Structures are given as C-alpha cells and as structure tokens.
C-alpha cells in the first residue's frame, strides 16, 4: 500500500514539475514511470531491514521468567507445557484468528533472547498458519484478550536441531505471552 501511494505521489510530482501529464508524450511518461520504479525500489529496500535489535538495557531490569511449580503446568500430548497467570476475558483464540501479543522469550537459564516489549511493538500473526514456531501455534490457542500465559516449548516445537541466532540447537524455550487482541 505504501509503495503505491509513494509511486502515485512521485508520478504526480513529476507531472506537476515537468508540466507533462502523459497523453501523447510517451517519452516523458516513460521517464515518470522509471522515476516511480526507482523511488519504489528504494523505499522497498530501506523497509526490508527486518526488526531492529532491541536496545541494550540495564541488566538489573531485564525481565526473568516467573517461577511456576512443575505440578501447576498443563502438559499437552506434544510435550508443550503452559500455565495461565491470568485468564483474560471474551472469546478464546482459535486457529485461523489473527492475534496481537506482547511477549518475552528466554532460554531455560533465563537468558532473554527476544522481547516485543523491548521493541515497543506488539507482534501480530495468524494462529495455525505456520508463521510462528509450532509451540506458539499450539500454545496460544485458547488464550483470551488480557490473558497472560507462560509456555515451555520443547525443541521439536521450537527451532529443533538447527537453532537460531541467540538460540542454541535443541533448546527448550520459555515464553510469557500477553494477549492484546483477537480478530476472528
């Protein structure tokens, strides 16, 4: 959407500055189109840097996962464990719903590897669509708006044998998730 708006604005700017509005002046229209392509490509390339790394924070205020007694977890057949700190209200999230969440993610030694809070940006995804690790697709189902849940995700439902930057291979992950919005 942004690219189209900027392309239209560039075309209008070219037409106003040059006095040409297309029609029989195909050479100038081609130049205007070329200008639009260049501007749109530059906009696209600068917007594809991915998420910015979290800013360094004071180690005394880095969040740690809340302690949950082992017997308080609900364990699913997949090996995923979850605990609800707060249930939330309204309808429960289902596969196919678009959800917006805030979260922290840790290794089992409490090393924080990711946090939407540190980026100050909630994370939006569609449940069950495979856009997130399998542990999230399974573990976020059933949450309600305002709910707070801890997930303990085994490696085969996370990044498995390959790992990721800052996540070693075969790592069990801990997430605390705050449900912001659910859109069926």
Concise account of the structure shown:
With 184 residues, the protein is of the alpha+beta class. The protein has 4 helices and 7 strands; from the N terminus they run H-H-E-E-E-E-H-E-H-E-E. The two termini are 23 Å apart.
Describe this structure in words.
The structure is a single chain. This protein is an alpha+beta fold. It has 2 domains: 2-46; 72-183, Chitinase A, domain 3, CATH 3.10.50.40. Helices cover 26% and strands 23% of the residues. It is built from 4 helices and 7 strands. The protein has helices at residues 2-18, 26-46, 116-119, 134-139; strands at residues 74-75, 81-86, 98-107, 112-115, 123-126, 148-153, 173-183. Strands 1, 2, 3, 4, 5, 6 and 7 form a 7-stranded antiparallel sheet that branches. α1 (2-18) runs antiparallel to α2 (26-46). The longest helix is centred in the first third of the chain and has 21 residues, at 26-46. The relative contact order is 0.16. The model is unreliable at 1-56 (pLDDT under 50).
Q: Average pLDDT across residues?
A: 78
The CATH C-level class name of the largest domain: Alpha Beta
According to CATH, what is the topology of the largest domain?
Chitinase A, domain 3
Distance between the termini: 23 Å
Number of strands: 7
Oligomer: single chain
Helices and strands in order:
Blueprint: H1 2-18, H2 26-46, E1 74-75, E2 81-86, E3 98-107, E4 112-115, H3 116-119, E5 123-126, H4 134-139, E6 148-153, E7 173-183
Antiparallel strand pairs: 1-2, 2-6, 3-4, 3-5, 3-7, 6-7
Helix pairs in contact: 1-2
Keywords for this entry:
single chain, alpha+beta, 184 residues, Chitinase A, domain 3, disordered N terminus
